[in-house]
Amino acid sequence: MSAASARMTPIRTTPVHITMVTGGPFPALGGAEIQALRLAKALKESGYQIEIMCLNAAGAQKRNEFVDSIPVHRVGVFTFSTPGGKHRLGSLSSFPAVFTTMLRRKPRPHLIHLHLLTRATLAAALAGRFMGIPVIAKLGNSGRRFDFRQIRETYFEGALLAYLFKQSISAFIAPSSAVSADLLNEGIKVKDIVSIPNGVDLEYFSREAAAPSEAPPGFTFVYTGTLKKKKNLHILIEAFAKAQADAGGRLNLIIVGDGPERRTLETLAAEHHLTGRITFAGGHQDVRPWLSLADAFVLPSEAEGLPNALMEAMAFSLPAIATGVGGSLELIDPARSSFASPPGRFYEARHGILVTPGDIQGLAGALTKMAENAERNRVLGESARRHIEENYTLTNIAKKYEELYQSLI
Q1: Which residues are bridge partners to 171 per DSSP?
Q2: How far apart are CA 278 and CA 273, in angstroms?
């Protein structure tokens, strides 16, 4: 928090009004949206006036409502697109809709807090700059999926959007050291980067708080999150098929979540004759019942910022297998700044097992290894829980945001 501390001002005694802006529908099962809601609730408990502004494609949801006691305002937009690629138009109408809505909002917020970089969040940022309101932006990914890289590849005017974001943001929030490094490489000044990780509600994500569930026979792995290409779930299914053969058919895999890759993944599971061993549970706001069924957690992503799903599983005392990318590496082995493993190999780290993204054989070996040693898994799970307790409690993370807010308003 050095960047924030350097700009500290006395704490205000009047309520502070914060508008959080997401680039899509809300609520949603994505990590950014989930983290926004949890942070909003924690800040509200500290006396902040919090609202969330999001998009409402084709009027599919109520314009105004409360979600878990947080007021949500949805901006109506029309969506249209051309097939994939750099020239995908997406929702061009979101920009003027969000910009004008932000200008008309009464009362005006003291600060605008963006979650991810999109056309919609840029509109809010420019409106904030026009009104003289400080704007901060929390980024979500690193490496190949780094937010600035994504907007350049997604939008035909991506280079312009990136430039305007840099001109409009008072502080960029980096949830992991990998995101901080990407921001520096992007040309963002050190003084404008603030390191604040995601937070976990430890009382909520604990085995004691979850309803007991009857686990299926055998050893059960679980994945929670969106079903998108960047999550490499096709790699997980291929690796699981190999591990299943090595383990004599006693392994189970539960995939909790939904997304555009679901049908493809279900087909792949069927091709490997794993329909009875791989369960597609669909999307769920509360993933604790599924975590309670599992013996271990697995996250095979090609890129991550600081994955909520992995943090939640670690808080649940589950041993984890993850790719050594972005914030996943930081969570599993904090002492490492980078990770590389020979093809077909895996690495037993401090709080779990690390594998290289896309390495089917390496991931298969890690799955087999974890299913063999119950005592080692218990130690890893306890270590993972302590790591989250010491570094990622939602209460402490909310306090860091309070310090940043107060330094800017």
Answers
A1: 136
A2: 10
